[in-house]
UniProtKB/TrEMBL annotation, chain A:
Residues 4-239 form the ABC transporter domain. This is ABC transport system ATP-binding protein. One of its GO terms (cellular component) is plasma membrane. Keywords: ATP-binding, Nucleotide-binding, Transport. PROSITE patterns: ABC_TRANSPORTER_1, ABC_TRANSPORTER_2. GO terms for molecular function: ATP binding; ATP hydrolysis activity; transmembrane transporter activity. It comes from the Bacteria. InterPro entries: AAA+_ATPase, ABC_transporter-like_ATP-bd, ABC_transporter-like_CS, ABC_transpr_LolD-like, MacB-like_ATP-bd, P-loop_NTPase. Coiled coil: none annotated. Pfam families: ABC_tran (PF00005).
Automatic annotation (TrEMBL), chain B:
Keywords: Cell membrane, Membrane, Transmembrane, Transmembrane helix. Pfam families: FtsX, MacB_PCD. The keyword Transmembrane helix applies. The chain crosses the membrane at residues 21-42, 262-284, 305-332, 352-371, 398-418, 424-445, 466-488, 519-540, 552-572. One of its GO terms (cellular component) is plasma membrane. Belongs to the ABC-4 integral membrane protein family. This is ABC transport system permease protein. The keyword Cell membrane applies. It comes from Kribbella pratensis.
Length: 241, 589
């Protein structure tokens, strides 16, 4: 069953002569439990694709489906509710709320979803333990290293047990050691059956995915299945040549 | 010289980039300075007008009033002419107590029986028409203005009609409606105006069974020695009442007794609103200012030069606003200092007290709003200032936990308030200042009407108009402040709001949260404003004040809160609908 699906998904920026097609009639199917990496040069439309999938931007044309629900025509309010329940975001710049502690940041999505404080706190403690930040729960983001901040952001993305986690350059601001930590967490999520879509420049991140899509000028130019369910190289689905 | 040029260039460039900020600062400070300057200089202005009227009309140094007419009164008054300190006199003349009707309205009047050719002492200045002639009356300008009398109208005095041949002013009596000065037999008099007729016409009126007293104007050897002159005449047998020119000048300012506190308190409240509004703007620019300071440090600027760059802009704008405010006060002052039109002349410039007070106000606005961000900018290390935005957010675990159990909009609102508690305090004070003005206006409206016979009470009317004007200015500034503070809050928190939306908060919840963040401090501010308004009105009022119904005050508080919610809704809604992806992408780079 596909968790994410797009049909002829298109996003244009600007108007007239300066109009740019950031995403150009993209068809995508992401089955449940798949880890998909999207790579491509800067400006090829990767992040825009991620924003469209997560309902942070509206497409110019085409369809987006999350599970059985078409999302491109939903109202802002309905999209927000969908994000609460079904989507977790991880950003390159972490985007933790500066004045909240690590635990309070992780609790936030659960509270927005209407869960009780006790429930939200229990879930946050569990997730912080999972990402190795239990001892940093009361620290402010400014007191964490870059890697720790990104791990906290991942924990926050998982707070409402989303259907899919969308990660935009999750290791873009991290050093090698921190990148390794994040990759370990992604590997654990993948093993647990979490659907992941990761936009990245980092070959090491892409190498951990089940599938790799290459983008250029808003289009998919390559779609490669890297590993099968057992972790073996499965095969290539070439779109070029 | 180079440094000064650099500072000027940087300041001008910054003003060009932030025209709206500059305009708001100038507007707010101008309103505050003009109001305060008016309030502080009114008494002086009124006295200056009296002195000019006195000079133009040969005003007497002392007016002697006998409690009745007849040979005894005349003899008693005439004996003053031979007093060694008296160098000239006018009279004795009859003062007839009557009433005057015109255009369907009427007023008490005193009729002075005057000479056809006035001498050097008490020579009323005719401002339109001509001086009295037999059968024709001249109406004092204050009374004429109140009744709408013009030259050529016919007025009825004690059932007898007289053509109005002229309108004039004098310094020998107090301004309308206190022209009588003292009633028959030395008792109090009703509010009344002044009319001049020939001595013969006044005598004819007196013969119609009206109360008549006698008066005489005196010129002293030493015009300032009026007290000594009065003391020399004090005896158990004297029946005369002596009004010195200083007494008349002071009496003239009584009409402004309610005006001065309205304007002075209003000026300080407006100044306070200016501080809160401009401080919110300055705080909103703190990141930019810190980066600017970092850049200047990096290229070798000294702390002094950086402070000069950051402070000069606000100081220069505030001083410009002071000049504008003083000019506005100067233009408006004659109308407010002379509400009855009984005096002539022009007001002089602001006195020392006014200059000092308005300078203090201007410095308070400029320094209180710009000093904290400037000090912060100077203290921030150069590299930090250049590389990271200066966010000075404090973790508030108690408030965060408390907000966690609230619905999403309240959670967002409370956490926004916790981000900038100082701004919430400013907003509370801003609301308090506004509601103080509104409460003052409501109390003013609730006071019993005390008309001058059938005519409106000029003093009450002027006080009401000024109270209304000050309140309108307070409300206007508060509106600008509320919108500016909401917008600043929205802009500063745009990333965390975008993150909140990315995590599932709806635009409506974020928008409501932004509004709630403004509404929360407005509640205690509005309540405090009611009590402050009552307190200030009580301090500056004489005697018992009539309180408006509690429902009025409650309605004022609720209306203020409703207006705050409505005013914040638009910028909050606009900010909450800003695309999330664009905000977050902009912060990623």
């Amino acid at each position: 069953m596909n968790v994410l699906q797009t049909r002829r998904l298109t996003k244009e920026h600007g108007a007239g002569a300066s109009r740019v097609r950031a995403v150009d009639e993209v068809d995508l199917d992401v089955p449940e439990g798949q880890t998909l990496a999207v790579m491509g040069p800067s400006g090829c439309g990767k992040s825009t694709l991620l924003h469209l999938l997560g309902g942070l931007e509206r497409p110019t044309a085409g369809e987006v489906w999350i599970g059985q629900r078409r999302t491109d025509s939903l109202s802002e309010r309905a999209l927000a509710r969908l994000r609460r329940r079904s989507i977790g975001f991880v950003f390159q710049a972490f985007h933790l709320v500066d004045e909240l502690s690590t635990a309070e940041n992780v609790e936030l999505p659960a509270l927005l979803a209407g869960r009780s404080l006790r429930e939200a706190r229990r879930r946050a403690d569990f997730l912080l333990d999972q990402v190795g930040l239990a001892d940093r729960a009361r620290h402010l983001p400014s007191e964490l290293s870059g890697g720790q901040r990104q791990r906290a952001a991942i924990a926050r993305a998982l707070a409402n047990e989303p259907q899919v986690v969308l990660a935009d350059e999750p290791t873009g601001n991290l050093d090698t050691a921190a990148t390794t930590d994040v990759l370990r967490i992604f590997a654990e999520l993948r093993a647990a059956g979490q659907t992941l879509v990761i936009v990245t420049h980092d070959e090491r991140v892409a190498a951990t995915a089940d599938r790799l899509i290459s983008m250029r000028d808003g289009m998919f130019v390559d779609d490669t299945r890297l590993l099968d369910g057992t972790g073996r190289l499965a095969g290539l689905i070439g779109l070029e040549g | 010289m180079g440094r000064v040029l650099l500072v000027v260039r940087l300041v001008l460039a910054d003003v060009r980039r932030h025209k709206a900020h500059a305009a708001m600062l100038v507007l707010a400070v101008t309103a505050a300075v003009a109001t305060l300057a008016l309030g502080l200089s009114l008494n002086g202005a009124c006295e200056a007008l009296y002195r000019q009227t006195r000079a133009a009309t040969g005003g007497p140094d002392v007016v002697a009033l006998a409690p009745d007419s007849g040979p005894d009164a005349t003899r008693e008054l005439e004996s003053l002419a031979t007093h060694p300190e008296v160098v000239g006199h006018n009279g004795p003349y009859a003062v007839v107590y009557s009433d005057l009707a015109v255009h369907g309205r009427s007023s008490g009047v005193v009729v002075h029986g005057a000479s056809l050719t006035p001498g050097p002492i008490n020579r009323p200045l005719v401002t339109s028409g001509e001086w009295i002639r037999p059968g024709g009356a001249v109406v004092e300008r204050g009374l004429a203005t109140a009744l709408g009398v013009k030259v050529g109208d016919r007025v009825t005095v004690s059932d007898r009609r007289y053509p109005v041949v002229g309108i004039a002013v004098t310094a020998a009596t107090s301004i309308y409606p206190w022209a009588a000065g003292i009633g028959p037999l030395g008792g109090p008099s009703d509010p009344s105006g002044l009319v001049w007729m020939t001595a013969k016409d006044a005598s004819a009126l007196a013969g119609r069974d009206l109360t008549v007293t006698t008066a005489m104007d005196l010129k002293l050897r030493d015009p300032s020695a009026t007290n000594a002159f009065r003391s020399s005449l004090r005896s158990p047998t004297t029946r005369l009442t002596l009004h010195s020119w200083q007494f008349i000048a002071t009496q003239d300012t009584v009409i402004l007794s309610g005006t001065e506190p309205i304007l002075v308190v209003g000026g300080w409240l407006l100044g306070f609103l200016a501080i809160t509004g401009v401080a919110a703007l300055a705080a909103g620019r703190i990141v930019e200012q810190t980066r600017r300071a970092g850049l200047l440090k990096a290229i070798g600027a000294t702390p002094g030069l950086i402070a000069a760059v950051l402070l000069t802009e606000f100081l220069a704008l505030a001083v410009l606003a002071q000049v504008l405010g003083l000019a506005v006060a100067r233009l408006v002052e004659p109308a407010i200092a002379n509400p009855t039109a009984s005096l002539i002349g022009c007001v002089v410039g602001p006195d020392g007290t006014t200059l000092v007070a308005t300078t203090l106000l201007v410095l308070a606005v400029a320094l209180l709003t710009m000093l904290p961000p400037t000090v912060r900018a100077l203290r921030t290390a150069t590299v930090s200032a250049l590389t990271s935005p200066a966010q000075y957010l404090r973790h508030r675990p108690l408030l965060t936990t408390l907000s966690a159990v609230l619905p999403t909009s309240l959670l967002v609102g409370l956490r926004l308030t916790a981000r900038r508690p100082g701004r919430a305090v400013l907003h509370a004070f801003s609301t308090a200042a506004t509601v103080t003005g509104i409460t003052g206006l409501l109390i003013g409206i609730a006071q019993p009407v005390r008309p001058y016979a059938a005519l409106p009470n000029i003093r009450d009317e002027q006080n009401y108009r000024l109270l209304l004007a000050v309140t309108v200015m307070l409300v206007a500034l508060a509106i600008v402040n509320t919108i500016a503070i909401t917008w600043m809050t929205a802009m500063e928190s745009r990333v965390s709001m975008a993150v909140t939306r990315a995590l599932g908060a709806t635009p409506g919840q974020v928008s409501a949260g932004l509004s709630f963040a403004q509404l929360l401090p407005a509640v205690p501010g509005a309540v405090a404003g009611v009590y402050l308004g009552i307190f200030l009105f009580g301090i500056f009022s004489v005697g018992q004040i009539a309180m408006p119904p509690a429902s009025w005050l409650l309605a004022a508080v609720l209306a203020t809160l409703f207006a705050t919610a409505a005013l914040t809704a638009l910028p909050a809604r606009f900010a909450a609908r800003h695309p999330v992806a664009r905000t977050l992408s902009a912060e990623t780079v």
